[in-house]
Fold this protein.
Amino acid sequence: MAKAATVYDVAKHAGVSIATVSMTFRRPERVRPSTRDLVLAAARALHYVPSASARGLADGRTGVLGLFSFDYLLPVEVDEGADPDEDCRDFPLYVDEIQRGMELACRRHGYALLIGGPSRVGGAGNLTDIAGHVDGLAVFPQTLPAEALERIAGRIPVVAVSEPPDDDRLSHVTVDNRGGMRAVTEHLIRAHGRRDLLFVGGLNPAEGRDRFAGFQDAVRAAGLRVPREPLVPRTRALPGGRAAVVLPADLPLPEAFVCATDDVALDLLEILAGRGVRVPQDVAVTGFDGIVAGRVVRPSLTTVRQPMAEMGRVVVDILRGRLDDPGRAPVFRELPVRVVLRESCGCGPG
């Protein structure tokens, strides 16, 4: 692993004094904007992360935790002239509910929560600004390169959210993706006699692999043909940055669509309604996540509910534990899920 950059490296790269680099991170409002931009650009280029103690804090703590989140599903601003009906912020999404759990836990334990993401301010380099101002960091999948996360984990505790453990120094918090998808697929087969099932993938490969494996487990146990790969649908951009699923026009209609996420399932419900396909009479549809929109859409969506707010609280607990005991090994927590039966599989509102 490459040697971590120091304050001296940043000062040399930016052509300023060490004191100016220090002041940029301790008291940025006291540094001329043009100079501050030079220092931050150098820090990003070198992947420099200032330690809390280097900022002159008496106890080496900032009292702040960070969340680095993808926000392609939740734009900060809606494009001017965009159709308000396309604004995906009408209902809390998966990311929002985990964030809310972190916020509540931080408030209870006296921490502030600093939130950033690749597209909020300036690409993945924005991580330097966040990691340099927090005691611990939570990250969502596909938001940062593994190399950058490894560097950060050498300085502060890092928790990867919704991602299974890998050969890294990170803690991980996820859910029983495989078991949850197996359970909802078994329900379609046993309770509703659906035998021609098609798995539709989502945008997170790590979660998708485990969920597809659970789907394969269920169809294999039922003696059905086991697909080797999921259907990975094309997407189209909507106003505000959201991506919507696009199904091939000539796709044969199965007896059930088993979707990797609620977002994909909700898009499918809209597509099927536009084609005059009845759900669940002609085809069943299920999702995975348990977002609010799945409860209010018609037909209401059968799904696998993740304990999203609880995930946020567990993330904060892990970060606090690592801060209290810096020598503690990385932690892996897999939380249980539950199947929620609604109209889209044929169970009805009750």
